[in-house]
Specification:
Length: 267
């Protein structure tokens, strides 16, 4: 199915439609295009450090009206996972207070105590990280606790370059413990599949846009949908061969992608 026939667009955010507090040229035009054709877009992010309310506020600052139902995050994926796979004991969360709050609101047994009641360690993008949290993780993983991570992104794009993300924390803990976690967010297909279930669109009507081959594009491939690689964030063309993950399309940025879509509207 041609790009112009797509109706559900799954959008990564940082590095795809904006960078930090800078909205990319073409984003508003693209979102208006989706509305004009009667389609739907959802924002999919691996960033587990913030709740949906924070993303809605950020979108408002950038001039985009958004609602809770427009988002799917790796924190949502964590809630879904633990609902389907209940933890035998408490869940030690190495993550932000926002992530802990979302898990508690879902009724999950979250704790900040590294004691014998913990059966699972959940690692997120912790922008409030302390050495004590890292030590707690090492203690618990050494005891054999189950090990889950919200996502594998190595860095988070910023206005000054990049900052360590959850994937960097994973590597640090691997060096210390020899343990690797089960990953919940992109590149797993679950978030994309959940988006299609939520909206009722079929895989052939759906595509995912992102700037990371090993998460965004791999998620699309694993979910059986077209994947659009945008070179406006972390990723570079060499990543395609490096990770052996092949996008359906490659564009310089969201403006170039919108320009291609717009050709289908020409009369």
């Amino acid at each position: 199915m041609a790009l112009q026939d797509k109706r559900l667009f799954l959008l990564d955010m940082d590095g795809t439609i904006y960078l930090s507090e800078q909205l990319f040229d073409g984003t508003i035009d693209f979102l208006n295009y989706v509305k004009r054709i009667g389609g739907r877009y959802l924002f999919l992010t691996n960033n587990s450090s913030r709740g949906t309310d924070a993303y809605i506020a950020k979108m408002k600052r950038l001039g985009i009206e958004a609602f809770p139902e427009d988002f799917l995050t790796s924190a949502d994926a964590a809630v879904d996972y633990f609902r389907q796979n209940p933890s035998e004991g408490n869940i030690y969360v190495c993550g932000t207070e926002s992530l802990k709050g979302q898990l508690r609101a879902a009724g999950l047994p979250v704790t900040a105590d590294a004691d014998d009641r913990v059966s699972t360690v959940l690692l997120g993008y912790d922008t409030e990280l302390t050495y004590q949290k890292l030590e707690d993780c090492c203690i618990l993983l050494g005891r054999g606790a189950d090990y889950i991570a919200t996502h594998p992104d190595m860095v988070c794009p910023t206005w000054y370059g990049s900052a360590p993300d959850c994937g960097s924390f994973i590597e640090m803990l691997f060096t210390a413990t020899g343990r690797r976690p089960k990953i919940l967010g992109k590149p797993q297909p679950d978030m994309a599949l959940a988006a299609m279930r939520r909206t009722g669109y079929a895989p052939e009507q759906t595509c995912i846009l992102g700037d990371r081959i090993y998460t965004d594009i791999a998620c699309g491939v694993n979910a059986g949908i077209d994947a659009v690689f945008l070179l406006s964030g972390e990723g570079v063309m060499a990543d395609i061969e490096k990770y052996n993950v092949h996008p359906s399309y490659v564009f310089r940025n969201i403006r170039a992608f919108f320009t291609e879509l717009e050709k289908g509207e020409a009369v």
